[in-house]
C-alpha cells in the first residue's frame, strides 16, 4: 500500500488509500451532495458489529434515495449472517461488518457464499485499510469494501452505484419551489430562478409547472398551455424520451417548460407514483429540473418536497407564512437528515402600509436565514407578468435579477469563479453585449 496508488481500481471502484482516510459524519453542509438516482425495490440485510455502523446504515435506509429499498439492520456480523442464510434465502444485497483479520474475513465470506443465491451482492464494512484485502475481496465478487466508520451518504452512494446502470444517462438535479402560502410569488420565483439557472450553467433546464389547473408558466413565458403534462401523469408508463421531447416547449436555448393544462375540464387527483415516474423520465433527459409546486398539501406534493434534491420555500414576511414555513422546514429537516436545509426566499418585502415581521425575527423564529429577500415591486413584476417576460428580460439591472442569480448559483451545486471586474476592452465588449 503506497501513496502512489490511484484511488480507483481498474473496475472504477474506490480504493482505500492510507493517505486519505474517510471522515466520519462530516457535516452535510460541508459536502458536495451527489445527485443520485433512486435505487430500485431491493431488499437489503445488514449485519453490524458496532452500534455506530448500525445507526449509520439505519440513517441511510431512511434516506429519500433509498426509499424504495427494504432494509433490515441487525447486530452480529458475519456469524449472524451465516446463521440466517443457512436456513433462509438471501436478499438482493447483504452488508456485513467485520473486525477480523484478512484471512478470517475471506474464509467467512467463502462460507457465506455457499449459502447465498447467485444474484446476491455483498458489501463488506471492515476496519482494515488494506489494499491487498480490498483487491482480494473484489476478485471474489464482493461489490464494495468500505472502511469503518462509514457515514450514511457514503453508504447511499455505494448502494446507488451498485444498482445504477452505468450506461444510463445521469440523473438531473431536481429543485422544488413551493410557496408557504398561496399568492406569495412562488411561481414567479420558480420561473425566474429556472431562467437564471439556464443562463448560468449553460446546460438544459426544464421547468415543470405542477399547478395543473391554474399554472402560469405558459403565461409567464408567453407560450401556449398544453395537456401534455396531464396526459403523461395519467398514463405515466407511456412517457418516454421521445414523447417527452414532443411535450417540451423551448423558450430559449437551454430552457424548456412543461406547461400545465391550466384548464378545469377535468380534475387532477393523481397518485404520487405517477409524479415519481414522470419526473424520473424528465430527470433522465436534462441535468436540471425546476418544479413549480402549487401551494396544496397532498400525498404527491408532500412526496415531491421530501424527495427533491433541493427545496426552495417562498414566503412573504407575515404571520401565516412564518407559521407555515416553520412547519415545512421542520418536516423537511426531520425527514431528510442527510440533506441540507431548504432554502428560503422572502418575497414581496415592503408592501406599502402592510405591517411586516422584520426579516431578522422571521429568520430567528424558523432558525433559517433567508438566502435572499426580494422587495415588493408591483410595477416591475406586474409588467413582466403581463408581457410574458422574465424580470431579467424586462430590466437586466433590476435588483431581483441579482437575487435570482444568487439562488440559481447555489441551487446549481456548482462553484463559479467570482466575476472579475471588467477593464479596458472587456468592459467595452460587456457594454456592447448589454445594449444588443
Ligand atoms: N416581489 C414581487 N413584487 C410584486 N409583485 C410580485 C412579486 N412577486 C410576485 N409578484 C406578483 O404576485 C402575484 C402572484 O405571484 P405568483 O403567481 O408567482 O404566486 P404563487 O405563490 O405562485 O401563487 P399561487 O399560490 O396562486 O400559485 C403575481 O401577480 C406576481 O406578478
Ligand atoms: Mg403558483
How is this structure best described in words?
The termini are far apart. This protein is 41% helix and 16% strand. Helix 3 (102-115) links the parallel strand 3 (93-98) and strand 4 (121-126). It has 436 residues and is an alpha/beta fold. The chain has two domains: 39-162, Response regulator (Rossmann fold), CATH 3.40.50; 173-412, Rossmann fold, CATH 3.40.50. It binds adenosine-5'-triphosphate and magnesium ion. Adenosine-5'-triphosphate binds next to helix 6, strand 12 and helix 14.
How would you characterize the largest beta sheet? 8 strands, mixed
Approximate strand percentage:
15-25%
Average pLDDT figure: 90
Give the helix/strand class.
Answer: alpha/beta
The CATH superfamily of the largest domain is identified as: P-loop containing nucleotide triphosphate hydrolases
Report the top-level CATH class of the largest domain: Alpha Beta
The CATH architecture category of the largest domain equals: 3-Layer(aba) Sandwich
